[in-house]
Amino acid sequence: MIKVGVLGARGRMGAEVCRAVEAADGMDVVAALDVDDQRSSLVDSGTQVVVDFTHPNAVLDNVRFCVDNDIHCVVGTSGFDQSKLDTVRDWLAHKENVGVLVAPNFALGAVLCMRFAELAAKFYDTVEIVELHHNRKADAPSGTAAHTARLVAAARAEAGLGEVPDATTSTVDGARGAEVDGVRVHSVRLGGLVAHQEVLFGGQGETLTIRHDSLDRTSFMPGVVLGVRGIVDRPGLTVGLDKLLDL
Ligand SMILES: NC(=O)C1=CN([C@@H]2O[C@H](COP(=O)(O)OP(=O)(O)OC[C@H]3O[C@@H](n4cnc5c(N)ncnc54)[C@H](OP(=O)(O)O)[C@@H]3O)[C@@H](O)[C@H]2O)C=CC1
Ligand SMILES: O=C(O)C1=N[C@H](C(=O)O)C[C@H](O)C1
Asked: Of ligand 1's atoms, which has the minimum distance to the CA of residue 142?
């Protein structure tokens, strides 16, 4: 039995994770903590894998605590840029047996959407991303959109494509979205939504739209459970659930 600790356990994702881990074979929730609880109970309960769905401002400190205490981590919380990933990698360099998985999105379709976008990127001059989420989300753009933009930008660079052409000379602040590695990302926040993303490519006389919709938070759970099972045998930093899938 893998002993699992959940951080953010009273949140939208954390509560779902507690249910999914309890329902899965070979793992148990031994600690379910939220914002005011003591992380020391992770150690006291013998937690082997922590699942973190908290807040972008809190997650790095939680990962530090886990690494220091030889606890593997499966991290869904958004807000991981390259410098935060490098920080985690540095911590892990001194810990041969600890693994941390940071996954911008645990939904299978979102993982495929990112991969398809990476594959399509070199064939199209222009690309923009639209992400749409519920209106209680703390951060914009979404971690998934930022990660997708970075993958697309890297694929464009590798193919020798330059900047995305844009003739805009007159605009209102924000009208053209945020820029992540040169890729425009537009964030929509609406009650009723869960998590949705479109990657739009434009070429000569055609467009390609790759869209993914999470209609319910259960969509993330098979990926989280896979992450918990996988991380115990994967020391070091793993970025993206795709590394645990046969993609
Ligand atoms: N990778 C993926 O597939 C997915 C990632 N996410 C990401 O997960 C994160 C959480 O999302 P969501 O569940 O919707 O958010 P919620 O606000 O519903 O849940 C977060 C919970 O964590 C608590 N919390 C905040 N800080 C800490 C802390 N230091 N220690 C323990 N608990 C803490 C919050 O308490 P309080 O409310 O009192 O602050 C809240 O109960 C976001 O970054 C989101 O983008 C979401 C869905 C899928
Ligand atoms: O806050 C959310 O809900 C989600 N957050 C993640 C993100 O920022 O990409 C993953 C998913 O989009 C849901």
From this structure: 45
- Write out the chain's pLDDT in tens, 247 residues: 999 999 999 999 999 999 999 999 999 999 999 999 999 999 999 999 999 999 999 999 999 999 999 999 999 999 999 999 999 999 999 899 999 999 999 999 999 999 999 999 999 999 999 999 999 999 999 999 999 999 999 999 999 999 999 999 999 999 999 999 999 999 999 999 999 999 999 999 999 999 999 999 999 999 999 999 999 999 999 999 999 998 8
Has 137 been annotated as catalytic? yes
CATH code of the domain in which 51 resides: 3.40.50.720
Nearest ligand, CA of residue 36?
1
CA–centroid distance, residue 205 to ligand 2 (Å): 33
CA gap 217, 195 in Å, rounded: 9
- Domain that includes residue 210, residue range: 108-215
Q: How far apart are CA 167 and CA 242, in angstroms?
A: 36
Q: How far apart are CA 52 and CA 5, in angstroms?
A: 9
The pTM (predicted TM-score) of the whole model is: 0.97
Q: Is 196 among the catalytic positions?
A: no
Q: Which atom of ligand 2 is nearest to the CA of 194?
A: 3
Q: Which ligand is nearest to the CA of 133?
A: 2
Residue 196: beta bridge partners? 132, 213
CB-based pocket (< 6 A), ligand 2: 78, 104-105, 133, 137, 142-144, 195
- Provide the CATH number for the domain around residue 177: 3.30.360.10
Structure tokens at 148: 């997708």
The ipTM is: 0.99
Q: Are 105 and 241 in contact (CB under 8 A)?
A: yes
